[in-house]
Design goal:
- With 609 residues, the chain is mainly α.
- The protein is 73% helix and 1% strand.
- It contains 26 helices and two strands.
- The relative contact order is 0.16.
- The mean pLDDT is 85.
């Protein structure tokens, strides 16, 4: 990539600014664990919301989204439901409120709050710590590999070198340098540094997104797009089959990617995405940076507002950039993409578009923006995981009386250790790819069933949680190693049922332990669900207790919130494609759903604290 001195200066100014800000705020992190990992629960919710959005603005995800929009057109707006992307709606409607009421520091500590200190509860506590730590190690390795590939595709310098007979490639040198710089301010400053730098990073990314969108809008018109895309590419709606054929369009080889993805039965895929999405969303966020932001807010109401703001600020600017790069690539990168033959490398579309279309200055801002996206996500993971080692292992089992100074110092060393182990994984990613995939994918496969039941069923025990997670882990591992050819979404129901079976078996292996702890959890958290016997006992002991009767309202708000979020995804796409009628319709939907959320959700938050 050709980079001017101005662009280099912008990137260097950003890196220096992040480090200075991170170190400036480091003193605030050294008071105690709550200050280091949660900012002392004093950070404003809107800062945490911007920080959370910055952490979700990752490079690899952006490259993937540009690729699927290129291939599937408007129908690609549904594909992020595979995660599902609207789990944040469940979080801001009610889950953030329930989680923040716990007053804990980590997801593992929350397990103790929910199940108590019995044998099953301890097993559950240990397995969630293992889940959190291993997930973070896998993600650090994943980001290490991703930032290396991205850096070599956009930066002109070869940083490869030999080290005691071992050749360190340019990609790994870039990754070591960037991960090292990010770790400096993250480890030193804790949550204060992470949030402050991520707010700055989000501002840079948003400006870059708007700039890309403006350039694309001025360079591409609707007629140029129509000439290169197949029939149905601009249709959001779908039937049982995908019915998208690139044979007579500009890039016929794209059909091979559609076939490889296995998304032709789009109707079936959609049904499974919705079913998986509902269960995965009710389960709540995994014990990572998203949960940490919720636990760092001042009150339950602010936790909900923080998660709401994350969606508000993320999707429109991000998709404005995504669709901008996509249409530029469709119209102007034909020769380069056709030269790749049958296997177009869609990971290269984004760097190629940045190099070819962005002017001096904006290119530097875009590079700084993507660097910020990586650093923000990486920093969020680095800051989240050591809390589990220090608070949930060392403080709980090894040295309960440790001083705050000792705990903070140990947190810093734990952060450094996690980064180093993750980097070792990343350096050997080619040989450890299957292991990393197993760590991140298989463990998550066992997460959903147990974490749905923990919220809604009174009889569910720590023993059931442990066995449900274990059964899910076994099922996911069998799928990964023996049936890798099957798309994950199509085998999700089998893994879920197997994990659910483990939950039931484990729960009924013994009478409900820690009944008083369960009542305390129910009274403090106030969830809805199947809590009949516990609710009756709590109300007998405390006649002033008012149970949660908001299930219907929360369900309504979730449906409205999903539509509201979807509008923010498709409006920038319709705007860029000059599909003005559809854009106006979805803008009206956005206004209507915003009004409904204001009336039936936001106005009720004052009662949640």
């Amino acid at each position: 990539m050709e980079i001017s001195n101005i662009d280099i200066a912008i990137v260097l100014a950003y890196v220096i600014g992040v480090l200075v800000l991170g170190f400036y705020l480091s003193k605030r992190a050294s008071k105690n664990l709550e200050s280091y990992f949660l900012g002392g629960n004093q950070l404003p919710w809107y800062y945490l919301g911007l920080s959370n959005a910055s952490g979700m603005f990752d490079i690899s995800g952006t490259m993937w989204t540009v690729g699927i929009l290129f291939v599937y057109g408007l129908k690609s707006a549904w594909l992020p439901w595979l995660w599902p992307v609207w789990n944040q709606v469940f979080v801001f409607v009610y889950l953030a409120i329930w989680m923040r009421r716990s007053n804990v520091m980590t997801g593992a500590e929350w397990i103790t709050f929910r199940f108590g200190d019995g044998k099953g509860a301890k097993l559950s506590h240990i397995i969630i710590v293992i889940f959190a730590v291993i997930s973070v190690l896998g993600f650090i390795a994943y980001f290490f590999e991703g930032i290396g590939k991205y850096s070599t595709s956009i930066l002109p310098w070869d940083l490869g070198f030999d080290f005691f007979g071992y050749h360190v490639s340019s990609a790994k040198s870039y990754a070591l340098l960037i991960c090292g710089l990010t770790s400096l301010y993250t480890v030193k400053g804790g949550m204060h540094s992470v949030v402050a730098t991520e707010v700055m990073q989000f501002v840079i990314m948003t400006i870059a997104c708007i700039g890309v969108g403006i350039i694309a809008y001025n360079m591409v018109d609707a007629g140029q797009i129509d000439k290169v895309v197949p029939s149905g590419w601009k249709d959001l709606m779908f039937g049982w089959n995908l019915n998208l054929d690139w044979s007579n369009a500009a890039f016929p080889q794209v059909n091979s990617k559609i076939s490889k993805d296995g998304f032709d039965l789009f109707g079936l895929l959609f049904i499974l995405m919705v079913l998986k999405g509902i269960f995965a969303s009710i389960a709540g966020p995994v014990p990572s940076y998203d949960m940490q932001r919720i636990l760092a807010t001042k009150t339950p109401g602010e936790a909900a507002k923080m998660s709401f703001l994350t969606i508000c600020v993320l999707y429109i600017p991000r998709y404005f950039m995504i669709v901008g790069f996509t249409v530029l690539s469709l119209v102007y990168l034909g020769p380069e993409l056709l030269a790749m033959g049958e296997n177009i490398d869609f990971e290269q579309v984004l760097p190629m578009a940045i190099n070819k279309f962005l002017p001096v200055g904006l290119k530097g801002l875009m590079l700084a923006g993507f660097l910020a996206a990586f650093m923000g996500t990486f920093a969020a993971f680095v800051n989240a995981a050591p809390a589990y080692l220090v608070n949930d292992i060392y403080k709980k089992y090894i040295n309960p009386g440790a001083t705050d100074k000792r705990l903070v110092r140990l947190s810093i060393w734990s952060s450094l250790g996690m980064v180093m182990v993750g980097i070792v994984f990343g350096l050997n990613a080619s040989s450890l790819n299957e292991l990393i995939l197993w760590l991140s994918s298989a463990l998550y496969g066992g997460y959903v069933a147990a974490n749905v039941l923990k919220w809604i069923w009174w009889r569910f025990s720590g023993n059931g949680y442990f066995w449900g997670m274990l059964f899910g882990l076994i099922a996911s591992t069998v799928k990964l190693f023996f049936f890798p050819e099957y798309v994950d979404i199509f085998v999700f129901p089998i893994i879920f049922l197997f994990s659910f079976l483990g939950c039931i078996i484990g729960t009924y292996m013994e009478p409900l332990p820690n009944r008083e702890k369960v009542k305390q959890f129910y009274k403090q958290t106030k969830p809805w669900g199947f809590w009949g016997p516990i609710k009756k006992e709590v109300m007998q002991e405390d006649p002033s207790f008012v149970p949660n009767m908001d299930f219907k309202r929360d369900t309504f708000n979730v449906v409205v919130g999903i539509i509201w979020q979807m509008a923010q995804v498709v409006i920038p796409i319709y705007f860029m494609l000059r599909e003005n009628t559809e854009m106006v319709i979805w803008s009206a939907i956005l206004i209507l759903t915003s009004y409904l959320l204001k009336k039936f959700w936001w106005d009720n938050l004052k009662n949640m604290d």
